[in-house]
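Appendix B.2, paired examples.
Example (i):
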Amino acid sequence: MADTDNKNKFFGVNDSLWGHKWGFKDSQFVINDDESVTFTGNRYQGVSGENLPYLVPFVESILDIEIKTKPYFQEIEKKQASEKNLNEAFMEELKSTFSSDQYSLEDNERILHSHGQNGPDEVFKVLYNKLQKLTDIVFYIESEEDVSKLIHLAKKYNVCLVPFGGGTNVTNALKLPKAEKRMIVSVDTRRMNKIESIDKENLLVTVQAGITGKQLEEELHKEGYTVGHEPDSIELSTLGGWISTNAAGMKKNRYGNIEDIVLEAILITPTGVVETLSATPRNSTSVQPRGLLFGSEGNIGLITKAKIKVYPLPKVQKFGSLVFPDFATGVAFLKELRHEEGVLPASIRLVNNNEYRFGQALKPEAKGLKKIEKRIQQFFLSKVKSFDISKLAACTIAMEGTANEVAHQEKTIFSIAKKYGAISGGASAGQGGYMLTFGIAYIRDFFNQFGILGETFETSVPWDRILQVTSAVRERLWEECKERQVAGTPYLAFRVTQTYHTGVCIYFTMAFSCVGLDDPEHTYHEIESALRQVILDHGGSLSHHHGVGKVRKAFLSQVHSANSMHVLRQAKHAIDPNNIFSAGNGVFGDSP
C-alpha cells in the first residue's frame, strides 16, 4: 500500500477534530435565535447543513423542561492542567533515544490524552470543570521498535504507560488512577496507521493497530475490499481499540464482531511479545494466548498490528425500513427472522418509540410535496393502520451481497414482517436511519451546554428477557430521578442493535436535566450504576461491546467467579510484574 502521511492524524494536531468533544470541527449542532437548530457541515447526509425546527420542541416536551438559547453552562476556554510529575532520569534517556517530535509536554496534549468520551464523567468535567488527574507526557509511537524501546525505559525507571487509540471509549478506561504516584506516559498509537500488506489470494490484510476505521475502509475500498466492521465510532476509533475492548459492529451479521475478524495480533508486553507465529484459518494448539488481547483494555501491553479478514466489496447494497405497532411486536419479528436460515441482512436494528420520535425530530422542516407526503404518512399510520403514534417502533435494514442474496433477503424479510402487521417505511428512511447513527453522536455535547446530561450504555440479554430488562430499566430510572429531585422527566430510548441465536444486544440512551443539581456528574453516575444493577438482576450482561473500564469494574464479582479473577490477575502479573501498564481497567483495577 502507498505510504500515507502517518503524522498529524490525532487529537490536538489535526484541526479537523474537536478534541475534547466528539467528532469533527466542521460538524456541530448550533441553536438559532428562533430556537431552531442547524447542524453544520456536509459530512452526514440527511442532517448536515439542515435547519431542524422540531428538535428543541421535542426535547422540551419529552423532558418537560424549557431550553433557552443562552447556554446554562459556559465552556472553560483555558483548560486547567495539573503540574507534571516527571521522572528526570527517564526523560533524559527518552530525549536521547527518540526524536523530539515523538513526545509532547504541552498541557493541551496532556489534557486531550487524559480522558475518553464518557459524557458526564469525562467530557463534561473537562469542558466545564477540571479533570482530576492528567498524564505527564504524551508519546507517539511510530514502529514496533519504538514500543519495545519505550517499554524498556518504563521498566528501567519505573514509569507507567497507558495506551491511547482513538479516545472514543465511554467507560472511563482512560481516566487515570488517582492512587498512581509514578510518572504516567500516554502512548498514542495513531501514527502506526498503515496497511502493511494485502493477501488477495487468502483475503487477509496485515494492518497496524493505530489505524482508524475510517482510514482502514478508505484504503481498502481503493483495492475493492472491506473489513465490514462498523461500530458507531468507526470514524475515530482504532483497530487496536476494537481488539482491546472486544468491539462489535453494526454489520456483524455479515462480517462478524471483532473476535471473528481478527486471526492474529501482536501484543508487546514488558516480558516480551505475545503472538501466534502462524496465522491459519483455525487451530487447536492448547490455550491460545491471543485470547488475552480481546478485552485487555490497555492493562497488559500494547497491541501493534493484526492480521484481519477482508471481503470483496458487496456488489449490491440496499436499505429498507419497517414500522411496527409497538416494540414488543418488533422483537417478535426479529426473533423469527433470526431463526430463518440464510436471510439475515448485514444490519437490522429495532428502535423503541422514544428513539423513533427523536429521529423524526431530527428531520428538516417538510415543505411542499414533502409536507403533503408527511401528512399522508401520518394519516395512513394512525387512521388506516390504527397505529398509536406514541407506541410504534421501527426497524432500519441494511442488506449487502450479490443481487440474488439481497433480493432473497428483501423478499423474506418483508414477507415475515407482514405477519406482524408491519408496513414498509421505504429505502430512503432506512438509509437515513442508518447514517443518522454517526451524526447523532454530536447531540450529547450540544445538549450538555443547556444543562442536559446524557450518555449511552448497552447490554446483551436472552430473547425472553428483552421486555423485562427494558421495562425494569425504565421504571428504575424514573424512581432514581424522582428520589434525587431531578427537574422534569428523564429520557430513555433503546434499540436492539444486534441479534444472535440466543438473544440480542440492547443499546440504551439516557438523559435528564441537571439544572439545580449540586453535583450533576456524580448524580448521573449513581443513576447509571443503579440501572446497570437492574440489568444484571434481570439477566443482562455487564457489557456487550463497550467493555468494563472503570465505570463497570465494581460489578465484576457478579459476573466472574473469584478464582476466574484471580487467574486473570496472575496472568497480568506474569506478563507485567511491575505493573508498567497500570491503566487499572476492569478486573485489573485492583491488581497490586
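Example (ii):
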Amino acid sequence: MTMTELYSTEEFERKYTYAGSDLGARWKKEKTAFRLWAPTAKSVKVNLYKAGDPGVEDRISQIEMKSAVAGTWTAEVEGDQNGVYYTYTVELEEGVRETCDPYARTTGVNGHRAMILDLRSTDPEGWAEDRDPNAGKNITDAIIYELHVRDLSVDPSSGIQQKGKFLGVIEENTATPEGVPTGLSHIKSMGITHLHLLPSYDYGSVDEAHPEREQFNWGYDPVNYNVPEGSYSTDPFHGEVRVKEMKQMIQGLHKHGISVILDVVYNHVYDGETFCFNRIVPEYFSRTHDGHYSNGSGCGNDTASERSMVRKYIVDSVNYWADEYHIDGFRFDLVGLIDCETINAIVDTVHETHPNVIFYGEGWTMPTDLTKEGVALCTQRNARLTPGFSFFSDTVRDALKGTVFVDDAPGFVSGLPGQEAVLEQCFLGQPAWCPNPSQTVNYASCHDNMALFDRIVLSTPKASRADQIRMNNLAAAFYMTAQGVPFFQAGEEMLRSKPLPGGGFDENSYKSPDSINSIKWADLRKEEYRQVCRYYRGLIAFRKAHPLLRQMVSDTVNATVTPVSGLDANVLAFRLAGDAEPGREIFIAFNANPTAAVVQLPAGKWDVCADGETAGNTVIGTAVGAIPVEPISAVILVKEEKKAEMKADNSRKIALGALAAAAAGGILAALLGRKKK
C-alpha cells in the first residue's frame, strides 16, 4: 500500500485526525502557541523572522517542536510576538522542507512567510458592532452582483483613487469626469443586496512585490486560503495591512446595506507540489492516481476533500472567514469536485453562529480520482443531498443566450425556437436537477465565458443594435423575475463588452489586461447605456417589492404560479397569486419574436409596470382583456382589484359594526336623523 492510499484508510484517520481548534499560530501578549499537523514528519522546527520577504536573510531563531496528539507538533514562544514572521521546517523521508503554515492568518509579500498577528489590532473602529445588513432574509431575497476588485476601479474613467485596491471598492461619491456616478455609488444605486467578490484570498499568479506592474488574474489559483490577497492592499510587505483593509472594505459595504460574498476555490490549488499542506504531508491534500495528480479541475490538481484533515481544513477555513471577516456568503468554484459531507459540514457549522450566511457554487459534474469508495460529490444531480447549498443554473443560462460550448449559438432571446418548455421549468425555479427554487442561481452571464452582450452580438450578426439591446434586457427580465436567486456580472447592466484588439470577443479573460477587463465607466456618457442601467435598476426594484417572485419551496410555487397555455411559439407567460401577497396578482409575459405578440389577460384591470424599455414599481399604463407584447421584450403587470374588494368589504364590516355599537348605545335614531338632514 502506498502512503497516499494509507492516508484514506480508517486506521490512519482514526489515529491521526485532530479535532482541536488551535492549529496555526495563536497569539497572546505573553506568548504565542504553535500547532502543526504533520503525522509523517520525523521532526519539525519553527523559524522566526523579522521580515516577510523570503529574499531577506533575517532569521531571529529556530525552535524545536514537540510531537503531540494525533500527528500534531507543538511549540511556544514567550513574549509578545505580534508582527513576527515564521515558517516551519519539516524533516520527512523525502527530505527537509521549509514552508508556510497552512493555517496562516496573514503573510508577508507573495505569501511565503506567515505572520504572527494580534487579530484584534486589525479591527476597524466599530468592528464588534458590524453586522450583515440583510440578516433575516431568505437566499431568494438576494440579488447578487459579481465583481472583480480590480475591475471596479482601475479604468481611468472610474474617478477612484485607490485603483485596484480593497479600499477602492468603498470610496464614496466617485464619478466620471462628466459627473456620472461610478464604483460604490453606482452599485448602491442599482439596489443589489449582495456583492460577490471574485477570489480575494492570497493567490499565486500576481507578483505582490511589484504592484506598479500591470498584472491581472481572476485569482482562481489559491496559495494561502486564510490570507487576503496582498495586491489588493496598499502595502503587501506588512502582513497586518491586508487584513485591516479587507475588514475596512467589508465594514464599508455593510454600512451601505450591501452584504459580502467571498468566492472560494477549495477544489484545487495553484501548484500541487509547492502548496504548503502538501509540502508538510506529501500529496495528502490532493487526489492522486498512479503517481499523478488528478485533474478534473483542469488546473493541475484536485483537492481530496474526503480525507478527514482536508475536510477539517476546509470547514475551519470557511468558518474563519465568517467569524473573523464577517463574510455573509460563499461562492464555491467547481464545487462538484468537493464531497457532499464536507459541504454539509460547512453549512451546518457556519449556520450555528451565522444563520444568515448563504452558500452556492458551480455544481458541474467532472471526472476526478476519489481516494475513497462511496463518496457523493456536490453536483447539481446531488442537490437533494445538500439542501442548504445552491447551484448555478446552466440550464437557464444556456436556454436564454445559447450553449456556452458554441460561441455563436443563439438562445431564446436571440431567436432560437423550442426553448419554451425548459424555460417554463426555470421560471418556476424547477430545472430538472433542482428540488426547490432556493437551490437555483439564475443568471445569463458571469466572469466565465463571454459577456452577455458580446454573446448576443456574436450570435445575431444581422440584428440591429437596438434589437440586440432588447435581447439583453429580455434575458435580464427573465432571470430577475424567475423563482430562485438572481445573479449578474458587474457591468452587464451597462452592456459590458470585452472586445479583442484583432476582432471578436474575449471569452476567457482570466489573465487579460485591464484594457479588456476593466469596467468602462465612460460608456455611461451615452444614453443607450444609461437606459439599460435604468431598466436593470427597475427590475431589481420590482423584484424586491414582490415576495411572490422570491418563494423558497417548489410546492408553494406550484400552488401560486401558473404557466399560461395556448401562446404563440417563442412566447411565455405566467400568472402569480398567493398568500405571499394577499389581494394582489402579477402577470408576466416574454416575447422573443421579432414581431409583437398579443397575450390574453385574466379578467380585471391591470397596471403595467414594465415593458421593453421601462421597468420598476411605477405604473406606466393599464390594460384590460389583452395586451400586445412588443417584439423581443417582456411585460410585467400587477392587479390590485382583489385588494380593493377586500378593503371595500372590510369598510362595510366596520360600518355595520359601528352602527350596531351605536344602536346598543341608544343613539341610532339620532344618527339616522342627522343623516336625513
